[in-house]
Every structure is written in C-alpha cells, then in structure tokens.
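User: Show me an example of a complex going from sequences to structure tokens.

Assistant: Sure. Here are the input components:
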Amino acid sequence: MNNKSFINNMFHKNGRALGSIGYFILLMAIFFIGAPEAWIRPNLHQSVFVMMPTLIFLTIPLVFLVASGEIDLSFASTYAVAAYVFALLVKIGIDPGICFVAGLLTGAAIGALVGTLIVVFRLSSLVASLGVLFLLRGVILLLTNSRSITIMQVENHWIYPLLVGKFYGFPMQIFWAAIFIIFCYYFFNKHVFGIHIQHVGDNSVSAEQMGINVNAVKIKAFMFVGVGAALGGMFTTMITYTFFPTQGFGYLLLALAAVFVGGTPYWGGLGTIIGAVFGVGVIAYMEVGIIAIGWSGEWRQFFNGLIILLALLGHRLHGERVR
Amino acid sequence: MENIIQLDKVTKKFGGITALNKASLHVKKGEVVGLIGDNGAGKSTLIKTLVGVYSPDEGHILIRGKNVNSWNALKAREAGIETVFQDRALTPQQSIVKNIFMGKELRYPFGFIKEKEQIKEANRLIREIGFTSNLINADSPVGNLSGGERQGVAIARAIYNNAELIVLDEPTNNLSLNETQKVFDFVLNVKKSNRSVLFIGHNIYHVYDISDRFVILDRGEVVHELNKRSVSSPEELMKIMRETIVRH
C-alpha cells in the first residue's frame, strides 16, 4: 500500500467526520473570541451538557436510518408518546424501572409500525413519517387533553440517580450518552447490522441480490430511531419530573440538522457517528452560544440556518456520490 | 453425475407477462453450461429465479435432488451457488473488502465483524485476481475502480465463498480483451477444480469457447439443448440457434 492511497482512503473514510469536527472547533473559537468571560464559566457548558445527551439519543439513530436510505420525522412525536407511556405508568404507581422498559418498547413498536408501513407499502419515508408525526402528536393531545403529568415520585426510585442523577457534579446522562455513542460507533462500523445498513442504503438491489433482507434491515433502523426517541423523551421527562404533551417537537429540526451538519450525506450508504456527535455539539452550542456572546435569541434560527448551508457546502468538498 | 441444481418446469410471470414458461434446466457437477438466447428471451429472469432473487410462480427447484421451498438469495448462497450479476451487484461507496464479504461477513459471536481477517483475505483475493494498480487495496471504495476491476471484485466474492456453482451473467460485457481473457481463465480454473459454471452471454464465440453444453432459451422457454460434441463451430451453434428460434 503506498502512502498516497493510504491518505486517500483515510480521507474517504473519515473526511466527513473531520469536517464536522472542524465546524465545531471554528464555532467554539468564534464564541470564545466573542465572549471569553462567558465561555470560561462552567454553567454555560453545563446547560449544553444537559441538552446534548437528549439530542445524541435522537440524532445518532437517525444517522443509521439516513445511511439506510430512509428518513423519519415521526421520531419527534414518538419521543412524546414513549414519555407519555412512561409518565402515565409511573403516575399510577408501577415501578419506574418497568415503566422505563415499557417506554423503550413503545418507541421500538412505533418505529416498527412506521418502518413496516413505509417498506411494505413502498411509501415515501419523508411524507409518510410527516403524517405519523402529526397523527401521533394529535393522539397525545387528545389523550392528555393537552395537560402535563408530573412525576415527582420518580426521584425516590433507584432509576433516578442511576440515569439522571449527579456523579461528582456531572449529570449522569452524559455518561449514558457517552456509552450510547461508543456502542453506536461499533454497531455502525463493526457490526453486521451497521454494515448491512450501509450496503442497503448504497444500492438496495445489490444488497438484495447478495441475500441481505433489505426490508428487515430498514425496519430495524426505524425501530432503532424509535428507541432513541424513547430514550430522549424519558430522560427529559425524568430530568424535569414532568411530561408535556408538546415535548419533543422542538427537537425535530435540531436533530435532523445535527445529522447533516455532522457530515452524513442525505443520499444513503454513508454515515458517521463521530461526525454526528460533533454535529450535535455545533447545534447545542449554537443554542446557548448566541446568547452568551450577548446577541439576542432571535439570531439563533438565523445561525442554525447558516451553519446548515455552510456545512452542506463544506461537505461538498468530499465529492459527489460515487456510483 | 449429480445435479447441483435443477429447475423443473418453472414459470414466472410479471403482471400479465409470462417471462418464463415451464422452463427446465439443470447443471451437473464439474460442467460449464452456456445459456444463450436473444434479447428478451428470459435469460436474466431464468438466472434470477435460479439464484433466488425471484421466487417461481409454478414449478420446482431441486438442490442436489432435493426439493426446496421458499427459495431466496440467501438460501441459494448457503447452497453453494454464487452469482456474478450483470450489474455486478456491488455497492460503490463501500470498500472492496465490504463488497467481497457482502451478506456473508466473517463474524464473531453477536454479529461483530472479523475485520482483520476480512482485510487479509480480501488482499489475498485482490492479488489472486490480479489487480495491477498500486492504488488498489482492500479499503478502496469500489466506486473508484474501472469496469474490469469491479468485475474482479464480483468474481473475488464468488471465489472466496468456494461455491460449487458459479453463475456468470454476461461477465464479458464492457470488458477489454485482456480482462475477458482473465474471466475465461477463471472459468477454466473453476472447472478444473470440479466445480460448475453457468455462463450467460450474448457473444456466441465467448459462450462456445468455454461451455460443455448449450441451452437455448426463447420467449421464456427452453427450446433446445445440445452438447459441444454435436456442434463443430460457433458459426454452427449460431445457425442452430437461429433455426430453433424461427421454428419455435
């Protein structure tokens, strides 16, 4: 193997992740120059760290799904449905550990239903999941009568300190998010599931000819997105002790933005977990950074839009899709 | 000699169109069968049914004499049938190594992949197939390769799995003379090791050169079968094919 080819291949494999790390560093530098005092205060970073785990649970499974050649918008409502199931069961006195598992199963089941609907009836995943997004949100609003549910009692259960408590001052969800990232990195790059996802998203006809069950792979990817959404919803509900019927909606565009800013291309076959983590970093710091450097919150959306466009242009440098 | 695979009166329809009509075909151990026919004769449908991409609407598929139910691509590969598809069945954004092991990854328990072993095997296969460029290693994406090199990857996949029957669908299309010769050498090697090949081609000269037996397909039906002994030249084979199709 000669050097040039080694560098070429390294770039091909990691260029997209490196790109999003670059954006992250650039953004941090701008904010640091803009407001050095605010930047060294730990509470700014703490607020980012509270938000980041939820975004990570939502964003990384989406990388799997986008790499498989599909997209899902319904996760933002799945988030609320799973949290609702969790909160409701806790409220009626069931052990929160069991409620947590029930929430995860709810997420997986919704993912399986959405995936089956799209794969079996060959629907557009963008449009079908948009429908499910509204449908499920409607169901939640009707079931709850738009009322929230508080679950203070969860604090006295072992699951609370384990999942969202503090460990030497750090919120526990950071550790769970880190474990989730490591797990997903190996799952995507070194496990049959991730490899099959990449083949299916790259060329589903080829994958099928080689004996890969394309439909099953896609449905599993939708299920994983459902599980990620459920994790995000339940963690947030525990942190705030409250389930809101509208929760999760705000994450819809942020999580999608993080996937693409993170360097996963929209056309399928490729994806980067590390890139997505930095994509989440960019989006999460954007949310607080704008305020920290003294600009008004109105600028946030403007800069979110700008960074998405810049990221797309930047990732273009990694070339067109090879066929 | 034992039949590796036998298709018995297989019918396949797409909507109102009958692509295969009670087609029967068998391949014995160690023989090279050439499947010929005009465009639209149903060659591709026959192949895709044989290797499990399509499931037949009627008829039976027998593997080593035994009837199989719910035939699919995975079962075909497990039965020792590997296919080099006309479109190569590659995923161009993925590496050579991932493509060689697509669908048959070397795994640890719980589905994790034996990456090092795969790369070692892929590099060995790349050398065996004879990639000449230094730029090519197992980590290179397939999309950067030429048509002949891509065919090499598809063939490497078939070799690795030690298939008993290798199905080559138009394997010499768009290949240079040199690359075509490589494909021929490969077929002869397979035959030497007492394994079988089903060779599909437009080019009667190519098919004639390497086949032991010819099967002529027309409008979804097997209309003629003949041994190489009974045909003296590619020209004669072409003449027989033309006459058979006209009569049919």
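The lines above are the inputs; the final block is the predicted structure for all two components together. The mean pLDDT of chain A is 91.
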